[in-house]
């Protein structure tokens, strides 16, 4: 049986549905899973173990036989903890077949097959009775069904069903309860991820469309490593509020509900963003707590337990609101069965009704532009670089064509050239509505024409008989996942080669792929083998993940926003491939190989890759490192684009004295637009 998988195609700028073997989807799901990250989360594992021991003790103290239901067992770790703590029997439910098979193997290897039954079903399909999956209802419910938003993986419906059909009325639950916290803040940095800001271009102010300003934005949560958002980048307008609690030991409802936290504004400002996270109490008394609070909420930030499977959430209010110090405010959280959203009212607005359904985008822009893309469009320094580059190349008779998704470059060109730039164009259909709104709001529809055709379909007639004198792009394409996927710009340039004026200017004129070997502070955990976890052998899971990585993923880089994941450079940045946009895409592959010396001491976890675009001879913009690497190796990364990361299978400790080298071999395949790569550590 075959399966269809979406893969970014740099040669067409599209997301192609490629036929793969049925094993591909299976292997990719395992390779990119968070199982290793969870098992490396020592704080989580210890708290669960403590909570399970306490729950088993409470049930035994009542003189009852201990029967545990473990929903979402994964590796079977929590079930093995329960049996070790004294449980008489455990039903371990896992819906993902490969993981259920791994759990069965792990349970057997650790000698618990007689006490743990792995059930490969969704919990709502499990039956109880003499002929059922479970012989009896459980009196301890153990689960790990949570995501960054707490309920996004369907925790509420699963708990609701379990209490009705699978557990006893007086059951113990681990975790016992969850508490959701929130803080209302003002943050220009974060708000720029949600709303298009006015942009200054050569004395002209480009205004965002009213439909975008009034839009509630994308409905999905923005989950990030909030610990990497510096406290100085936001101003708290109120205290950290307890929004609501869920007691998992009692019947749970998945019905939509709302809760309100009332408080006085601590300072005057603009209410824009809600920062949110949750805690889980593993016991009824709240003595065993696992918190998702960001590091800056700890009295000692160094004790913060890093994890990537649970992060923190950023919610954007439907509209920015001014608040005054001392003003009574109501912060309202609402949820359905899978998602949360926030709203704000003032104390005098008693008649304001809470939206029964989560807000959604009505302007289309939030469906086209991701939150990092909004941040990129609002980046003043970046805008200045492009404006300066355009100013240096535009001429009174320039005929411009722009190739990028949802780009403002053609508008910049028109504003800079006024009547000198005749008619900038772009043709990406996906961003048509958003761009049209910007043009209409700023009365520029007469100066910029939108063409809904692909580059290979473009003709001189579409250009009113004029050859292109300036071909420009950021480049940015919504289908791009890895840095080199934006090379679609190069393929577009090649497609319109016959329409270019002999002296045409290409912006950017070139792109360069850079590499740097790094030691990650924490990100290495998502790929590191576990071996044993809390005394249990989970190596079958390591083997399963490695097999899936070897299927294809270990030969590829994967995208990560490295501003969220601190790392140290162990080599100097090295340019490895340059793509000359003034020329057409070559017919033959382009290869680059060589070595770069390790100059930093530390553990080499992998290689980071990014693109830098040479707009003009003296203006370059980086999609990776934004500043030179500091002496101690600290890196600052572009927060608007994801960089590529190639993880090494095994970690090597580098002396940093120049004896070890990073060897690389990269090949650009023009027919696929992809880059094949291989990295290794060598010694002389």
Automatic annotation (TrEMBL):
BP-aspect Gene Ontology terms: cell differentiation; methylation; spliceosomal snRNP assembly
GO cellular component: cytosol; nucleus
Transmembrane is among the record's keywords: no
Keywords, in A-Z order: Chromatin regulator, Cytoplasm, Differentiation, Methyltransferase, Nucleus, Repeat, S-adenosyl-L-methionine, Transcription, Transcription regulation, Transferase
Recorded GO MF terms: histone H4R3 methyltransferase activity; protein-arginine omega-N monomethyltransferase activity
Catalytic reactions of this protein: L-arginyl-[protein] + S-adenosyl-L-methionine = N(omega)-methyl-L-arginyl-[protein] + S-adenosyl-L-homocysteine + H(+)
EC number: 2.1.1.321
Broadest EC class assigned to this enzyme: transferase
PROSITE patterns (alphabetical): SAM_MT_PRMT
Annotated compartments: Cytoplasm, Cytosol; Nucleus
InterPro entries: Arg_MeTrfase, MeTrfase_PRMT7, PRMT_dom, SAM-dependent_MTases_sf
Function of the protein: Arginine methyltransferase that can both catalyze the formation of omega-N monomethylarginine (MMA) and symmetrical dimethylarginine (sDMA), with a preference for the formation of MMA. Specifically mediates the symmetrical dimethylation of arginine residues in the small nuclear ribonucleoproteins Sm D1 (SNRPD1) and Sm D3 (SNRPD3); such methylation being required for the assembly and biogenesis of snRNP core particles. Specifically mediates the symmetric dimethylation of histone H4 'Arg-3' to form H4R3me2s.
Record-stated family: Belongs to the class I-like SAM-binding methyltransferase superfamily. Protein arginine N-methyltransferase family. PRMT7 subfamily.
Protein's recorded name: Protein arginine N-methyltransferase
Lineage: Eukaryota, Metazoa, Chordata, Craniata, Vertebrata
């Amino acid at each position: 049986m075959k399966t269809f998988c979406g893969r970014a195609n740099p040669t067409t700028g599209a997301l192609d549905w490629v036929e793969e073997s049925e094993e591909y989807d299976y292997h990719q799901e395992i390779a990119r899973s968070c199982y290793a990250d969870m098992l490396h989360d020592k704080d989580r594992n210890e708290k669960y173990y403590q909570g399970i021991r306490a729950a088993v003790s409470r049930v035994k103290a009542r003189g009852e036989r201990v029967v545990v239901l473990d929903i979402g067992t994964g590796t079977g770790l929590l079930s093995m903890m329960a049996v070790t703590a004294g449980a008489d029997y455990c039903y371990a439910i896992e819906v993902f077949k490969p993981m259920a098979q791994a759990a069965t193997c792990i349970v057997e290897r650790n000698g618990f097959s007689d006490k743990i039954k792995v059930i490969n079903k969704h919990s709502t399909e499990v039956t109880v009775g003499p002929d059922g999956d479970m012989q009896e209802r459980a009196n301890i419910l153990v689960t790990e069904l949570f995501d960054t938003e707490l309920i996004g993986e369907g925790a509420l419906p699963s708990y609701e069903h379990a209490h009705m059909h699978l557990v006893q009325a007086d059951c113990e639950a681990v975790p016992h309860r969850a508490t959701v916290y929130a803080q209302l803040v003002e943050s220009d940095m974060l708000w720029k991820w949600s709303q298009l800001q006015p942009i200054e271009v050569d004395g002209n102010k480009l205004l965002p469309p009213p439909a975008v300003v009034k839009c509630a934005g994308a409905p999905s949560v923005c989950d990030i490593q909030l610990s990497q958002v510096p406290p100085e980048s936001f101003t708290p307008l109120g205290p950290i509020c307890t929004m609501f609690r869920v007691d998992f030991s009692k019947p749970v409802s998945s019905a939509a509900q709302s809760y309100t936290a009332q408080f006085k504004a601590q300072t005057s400002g603009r209410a824009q963003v809600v920062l949110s996270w949750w805690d889980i109490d593993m016991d009824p008394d709240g003595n065993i707590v696992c918190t998702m609070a960001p590091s800056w909420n700890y009295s000692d930030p160094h004790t913060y337990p890093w994890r990537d499977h649970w992060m923190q959430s950023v919610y954007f209010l439907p509209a920015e609101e001014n608040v005054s110090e001392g003003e009574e405010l109501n912060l309202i959280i609402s949820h359905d069965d899978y998602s949360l959203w926030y709203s704000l009212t003032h104390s005098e607005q008693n008649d304001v009704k809470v939206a029964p359904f989560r807000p959604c985008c009505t302007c289309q822009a939030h469906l086209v532009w991701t939150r990092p893309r909004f941040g990129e469009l609002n980046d003043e320094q970046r805008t200045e670089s492009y404006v300066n580059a355009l100013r240096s190349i535009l001429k009174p008779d320039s005929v411009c064509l722009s190739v990028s998704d949802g780009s403002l470059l053609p508008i910049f060109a028109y504003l800079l050239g006024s009547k000198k730039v005749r008619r900038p164009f772009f043709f990406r259909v996906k961003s048509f509505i958003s761009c049209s709104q910007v043009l209409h709001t700023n009365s520029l529809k007469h100066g910029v024409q939108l063409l809904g055709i692909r580059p290979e379909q473009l003709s001189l007639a579409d250009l009113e008989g004029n050859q292109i004198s300036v071909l420009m792009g950021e480049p940015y394409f919504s289908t791009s996942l890895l840095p080199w996927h934006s090379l679609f710009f190069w393929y577009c340039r090649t497609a319109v080669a016959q329409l270019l004026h002999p002296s045409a200017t290409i912006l950017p004129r070139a792109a360069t792929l850079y590499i740097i070997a790094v030691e990650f502070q924490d990100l290495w955990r998502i790929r590191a083998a576990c071996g044993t976890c809390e005394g249990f052998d989970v190596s079958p899971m390591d083997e399963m993940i490695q097999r899936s990585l070897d299927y294809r993923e270990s030969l590829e880089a994967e995208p990560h926003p490295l501003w969220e994941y601190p790392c140290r450079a162990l080599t100097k940045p090295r340019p490895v491939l340059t793509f000359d946009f003034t020329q057409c895409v070559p017919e033959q592959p382009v290869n680059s190989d060589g070595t770069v010396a390790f100059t930093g001491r530390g553990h080499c976890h992998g290689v980071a890759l990014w693109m830098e675009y040479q707009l003009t001879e003296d203006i370059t913009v980086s999609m990776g490192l934004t500043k030179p690497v500091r002496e101690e190796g600290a890196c600052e990364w572009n927060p608007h684009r994801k960089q590529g990361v190639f993880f090494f299978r095994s970690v090597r400790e580098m002396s940093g004295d120049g004896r070890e080298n990073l060897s690389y071999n990269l090949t650009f395949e023009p027919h696929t637009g992809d880059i094949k790569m291989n990295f290794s550590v060598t010694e002389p």
